[in-house]
Design brief:
two-stranded antiparallel ribbon; two-stranded antiparallel sheet; 4 strands; 18% helix
């Protein structure tokens, strides 16, 4: 199952975009968005999110 972003917790800092090794995360306006079909479930974004808005 792909990583999920809690849009209420996400502050739009973009840290997860930089940590994703397969570029599955893009900014959608002021929030991050994960392309579930591209996510490899590595968890890099979970550890890279300073507001703990991402879970696997």
């Amino acid at each position: 199952m792909a990583a999920k972003i809690d849009k209420d917790t996400c502050v739009g800092c973009g840290a997860c975009v930089d940590t994703c090794p397969v570029s599955a995360i893009k900014m959608d306006g002021d929030k991050a968005d994960i392309a579930e079909s591209d996510c490899i479930e590595c968890g890099a974004c979970v550890g890279g999110c300073p507001c703990e808005a991402i879970s696997l």
